[in-house]
Amino acid sequence: MSAVGPASAQRAGLSFIRDAEVEHTIRQIATPLFKAADLDPASVDIHLIRDNAINAFVGGGMHLFIFTGLLMASDNPNQLAGVIAHETGHIAGGHLSRIGGAVEMATAQAIASALLGLAIGVAGGSADAGMAIAMGGQQMAQRGMLSFSRAQENSADQAGIRFLHRAGESAQGMLEFFQKLDNQSLLIGSRQSPYLSTHPMAADRVRVVENVVAQESGVRAAATPEEQMAYDRMIAKLKGFLDPPGRTLATYKADDRSVPARYARAIAYYRQADLDNALPLIRGLIAEQPDDPYFHELEGQILFENGRVSDAIAPYRLAVETSNHAPLISVGLAQALIETGQDAAYTEAQSLLEAATAADRDNATAWRLLGIAYGRAGRMPQASLALAEYNAQVNRWEEAVVQATRARDNLPVGSPGQLRADDLVEYAKRQREEARAQR
Q1: Are 424 and 400 in contact (CB under 8 A)?
Q2: Cα separation, 319 vs 323, whole angstroms
Q3: I want to staple 393 with a disulfide (CB 3.0 to 4.6 A). Which of 273, 298, 304, 364 is the partner?
Q4: What is the dihedral of CA 386, 391, 394, 396, to 10 degrees?
Q5: Are 372 and 352 spatial neighbours (Cβ–Cβ below 8 Å)?
Q6: Has the keyword Zinc been applied to this entry (predicted)?
Q7: Which SS3 state, helix, strand or coil, does residue 115 take?
Q8: DSSP E strand stretches across 15-75
């Protein structure tokens, strides 16, 4: 696991992970709640922070930050839905816009800087693998989190309950999560969840939700087996990638034949470079569920990162097709294609990366690979523009100016690429001067 995040992300103290399956699972839970709040789901950015703390917060506009510790401390999708509903209450209630002073400014700056590093990093060794992590500390992130008043917390609770009910969901999951926090409030400060410091918990808040749950009707209190399976797989995947492999293997024992357990063990063995155990496990899951994109993706990742580049292309291609061209998975296939060194592969990689960057413009890895693909195909102005985008993502302002200027001067006048390059030149120059002034 490489620490390749930009300095700004490390200073902000945020360690991000990107993974198509994890993001899809959380989106499936969050989307009905965003719609219930009359928010456009596409306008709410969800960011996952690699940290064992039980925490979540909103900030920097319509951005929802969820810690992996919160995910792994929850038992079911209903509990996560309760947290997301509460945080959505903060967004819909405009609470962020009411927080003034230095805390708001410091938090906004930290988040804005850290967001530039979202797609940088690795899981299992590759900066372009399915789950990408930008390493950094947690102290500054915790200092910058938004604290809300008791009144705002109560308001977010009530709004969250409304959103759950509008989505046909019980507030039982919210209650269960609050009860977890209520138990944590008895711990000494150093052992408490940071969620308690940013979201003050009071016994009366628990009682209010208890009363609501006791009077509910016409809403479902439990996840479907399919929803629970998706959630259990997400947790298994997170533990497989983030916990030490030995701990994962102790948690998901060899005699556990469930899908999440085999998935977690496949990841743990892969991280130990034990392909004799990893590949049979993941291929067994593929045999049972041949249309599952994330199993194909993991097989491709295992093969690619162990030097079997040509063998990795077929599973990566199946992952792209069965995921309906998920951008993060497309980037994995594109990298494998580029590594083959074949001209035809560069053309396919360009197509994949153009679509991926159009759908996810903040993926710095995709821009870097697109620059490489263009360069090897002899499309140098386009390569310069892609590398300008990449350098702007990672705060390398001097190089961004150089590459954007080169693109601007060599692309057709008035073309979309030339206009974008011109904008990047001016933007990168401003950021460069601001960075110099802060030194």
Answers
A1: yes
A2: 6
A3: 364
A4: 180
A5: no
A6: yes
A7: helix
A8: 16-18, 45-49, 56-59, 63-67
Chain Cα centroid distance, residue 369 = 20
Reported as half-sphere exposure (CB side, CA atoms, 13 A), residue 275 has a value of 11
Locate the DSSP E strands across 141-253. none
State both tokens at 192: 């408490």
Q: CA-CA distances (angstroms) from residue 167 to 41, 160, 178, 220, 307?
A: 14, 11, 20, 10, 47
| Contact yes or no for 313/320 (Cβ under 8 A) | no
Rounded Cα gap, residues 73 and 68, in angstroms = 8
Q: Name the residue with tokens 């892609």.
A: 386
Looking at the DSSP assignment, which residues form a beta bridge with residue 67? 49
Closest CA to 141 of 119, 174, 117: 117
Q: Kindly report the length of the chain.
A: 439
229 in Cβ contact with 76 (< 8 Å): no
Report the alpha-carbon distance of residue 307 to residue 259 in Å, rounded. 27
Q: Which residue has the tokens 């991926």?
A: 356
How many other CB atoms sit within 10 Å of the CB of residue 318? 22
State both tokens at 277.
């155990």
Structure tokens at 349: 């990689």
Q: Along the 439 residues of the chain, how does pLDDT read in single tens digits?
A: 222 233 333 334 567 889 999 999 999 999 999 999 999 999 999 989 898 888 888 876 788 989 999 999 999 999 999 999 999 998 998 765 444 333 343 444 444 444 433 333 323 334 334 443 333 333 443 444 444 567 788 889 999 999 999 999 999 999 999 888 766 554 434 444 545 545 555 577 888 999 999 999 999 989 999 999 999 999 999 999 999 999 999 999 999 999 999 999 999 999 999 999 999 999 999 999 999 999 999 999 999 999 999 999 999 999 999 999 999 999 999 999 999 999 899 999 999 999 999 999 989 999 999 999 999 999 999 999 999 999 999 889 999 999 999 999 999 999 999 999 999 999 999 999 988 888 7
What are the structure tokens assigned to 431, written together?
A: 């950021």
Distance CA 262, CA 232 (A): 12
* Residue 213 tokens, joined: 């749950």
CB 59 within 8 A of CB 121: no
The burial class, CB within 10 Å (0-12 / 13-18 / 19+), for 416 is exposed
The angle at the Cα of 359, spanning 355 to 363, to the nearest 5 degrees, equals 95
Strand 16-18, strand 56-59: pairing: unpaired
Q: Which amino acid, one-letter code, is at 264?
A: A
Tokens coding 389: 């985008």
What is each CA distance from 71 to 49, 368, 422, in whole angstroms? 10, 31, 42
